[in-house]
Amino acid sequence: MNFTVSPENEGIRKMVREFAEKKLAPTIVERDEKELFDRSIFDEMGKLGLMGLPYPEKYGGGGMDFVAYAIAIEEISRVDASTSIGMSVHTSLCSWPIYKYGTEEQKQKYLVPLAQGIKLGAFGLTEPNAGTDVGNASTFAVKEGDSYLITGTKVFNTNGGEAEVEVVFTKTNKEAGLKGMSAFIVEKGSPGLSFGKKETKMGIRAAVQREVIMVNAKTPASNILGKEGDGFRIAMTTLDGGRIGIAAQAVGIAQGALDHAIKYAKQRVQFGKPIATQQGISFMLANMATKVEAARLMTYRAAFNKSNDLPYSKEAAMAKLFASDVAMSVTTDAVQVFGGYGYSREYPVERLMRDAKITQIYEGTSEAMRMVIAGSILR
Amino acid sequence: MEIVVCVKQVPDTTEVKIDPVTNTLVREGVPSIVNPFDKYALEMALQLRDKHGGKVTVISMGPPQAVAALRECIAMGADEAVLLSDRAFAGSDTLATSYTLSQAVRKMGNVDLVICGKQAIDGDTAQVGPEMAEHLGIGQLTYVSTIEFDGEKLIAHREQDEGYDVIEAKAPLVVTIIKLAMDPRLPTVKGTAKAYRMEVPVWTAADIAIDPKLAGLEGSPTLVKRIFTPERRGKGEIIQGDSKEAVDALVDKLRQAKIL
Amino acid sequence: MSVKILSEKCIGCQTCIDSCPYGAIVMKDDKAVLTEACTFCGACESSCPASAIVVEREKTEEAQDISAYKGVWVFIEHRDGRIRNVSLELVGEGRKLAQELGEELSAVLIGDNVAEMSKELFASGADNVYLVEGSAFHNYSTDAYSIAFTYLIRKYLPSVILLGATNDGRDLGPRVSARLKTGLTADCTNLSIDPETRLVAWTRPAFGGNIMATIFCPDNRPQMGTVRPKVFKKPVPDYNRTGKIIREELAINEKDIRTKLIDVVKVCTFSCNLEDAEIIVSGGRGLGKPEGFRMVEELAQVLKGTVGSSRAAVDAGWMPYPHQVGQTGKTVAPKIYIACGISGAIQHLAGMQTSDVIIAINKDPDAPIFKVATYGIVGDVYEVVPALTAKFREILQ
């Protein structure tokens, strides 16, 4: 057993923390308040090498492992969960299936600029009537010459409308059920591709989610990932890995709230002494810290497995299930530690609490996580 | 351009606290950082390298754990790093420190510029740069905010009280840097990976031909006789009232205290 | 004192030739040799990559040699034909040290056509003025001034040297102390003579002002230190006092000057000579907008003070950097420091907390600036500062 993060990955933590404190912290309050998506942040992250961390250097990546990636997501989320979801979707959900299932040509054409942060990526799976029930998707692609024409609507699409590259899942054979799904790389600007309204949300308000509307959207046949019928498997394995990103995001949000709560509890004086000296508060902080630590270990374990070609589907689902619950409870407790000030938008913990909720929902709800875990242990 | 940047690992003095009971410095838990002025020095060096080519080497004299400061500099983009570490360096004042650093620069040979931060935030002496220049027998430019290089000579702005002097000089030089107009660049993933994968060479006294009489405690003419905590300012007085009343009351108090 | 070039070690690289301020090294049969022009200054020693130059010094560790060093010296800084305040402050303080040691106080005046300034120095308490004049000294230059200063020190052997902790003083001091291989204590805020050892006790802040250290230079001479402006009072001049001018002629070789001043640019819209200021009025982020500094400047003008700024206001582009007070700006200690809309981040406090009187105006009663303030007013800067300006204008008339 070795529970030590490598010096190299601690270096990544230090680096990303500095980036988050210097470049994200000063503007997140305003971006959250005004629901501003700031593309220049991702441009800068690309220059620093943060948009392709776990991919080989020959594909423009950072050549790091998935633990480094989880740490980077965690550190960004500690300050700004809106930016971390953009990064996570880009890295785990768009770049990864191209890396894993793409041809060398597809990798050169799409993965390289994605990993370098020159292009931003998105992932189109969820539809109005197909959330957890992926098989109920109605988006359909027909082959015409050397192109596919895709028709359908994707919703809650993170980075949608901003991303240059999107991995889209469609049916190519309506009769074949889950085996009739295929995955395509769709470029922004394709004829027939447009974007709907921007979602207004409870949290992660500086991230962008849009509807993606495809009406005979024309995509070259060479842009199919794998072959026809591989779509469901690609979607599921991609989401398995994506959950590590969301688990890391949840850990980061919880850690951010815990840090604020500890600092405040030491400063805030009531009854003549800092509230941190009151057992009611100190025990609450102890519980929060313990939960964060447990969530972090589960998350790093899943990331470690993924890096080392060990099974990680169940581990990632467990980590996300647990860490997202931790994020919700720790941020709620942090608001409690702050009392009335915690409920005020003058202080950051209410934002973290709003941001935390989504981690129990996206890239598979907590209920879907239980389905994955149950499926795995009852096999 | 071959550039050496001298950096120091310092306690973050903004995190230093005073124990209210013993009135002494609480050093535990104070994070170590790269001296902020040295980061500006590194930024200046990296800009010169990016524009004119060459190589940036960071050096630091300190205990083995000071290697963390060097790794941070590599992560920001420095090409090479060397740690000068030896028990013989312990207790160095600025004269012995500057001698030791100069010996390392001398060993490297063919250095065009040695760039230092104007001072370290723990000692605040601003002496190591000029003293290195003297040990190396080369010119110095202190309190510099900009450098232009035309391939032959450097034009620098040197801070003065009411503006700056424009100074022309030729390499080799020691330059000390004040806060620049731009922030030091952030470390990159690539730099970080390199920083933690590389073996940072450690040079001992023997490696750089140190004369023991000139290094460490023995080579330090100054001696710290006593360290004490300055008297804390008494808690001040908040003057109550609306603006007008408060201003009147303040002026009365200044008069009573014979400050006006 | 002697200098030898060990010909068996000399590699003929000629590096030492450039290092010699007196042009006293020549090449003979591919080896460096010294000519009669050598002053034994030792500048060549460190230039030799082969350690072929050996400077034999009198063992300074021995007490009898230290005893050869006598007198307190003050290096005089001047700009635009005027002696800087800090130099006169040091003449005043140097007078006290000299008296206590029973030695003479001398001022070192290097410049171009500066002899006239001697009067002011005698009036302020100097017994002697060591005068070096020449066009090479028209403006401050590290090389020209360090050659002249070192020459005087080696010839007259002072025991104590004080310099102002200004940018030029902190440029020259370490250059000279390193050449003399002696100790220099930076940025002192208190000086005294240790009764037991008769050494100067140099006291200075460190760790951003969080601790003070008292430093001795026991075995090397001269004992050197730079002293912050405004720490000591300027002496009241007595123009009946006279003294002795000791003039030294010194030719500076053009090629020994490695840096050339080509322009002097003043960027301060309003005086920003913060280190010399008696009163500083500073503005911070709490002003909310750059125009707020007009109000700060007005108050400063009424008080004949200088304008300072927090780092936040400089970073926001409201004030130029020379006005910045704090850890990455200037360290100041005026009689009165007025902080307008400055929260008091520790970086700022490190640069001003030794001011005699601190007046803070801020709307946040919990702002850390109130922890160091002598007087604090909690309120809107846009109400309080104009009221203060009006009040001072009224009473100062």
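qc> Chain C is about 25% helix and 25% strand.
qc> done
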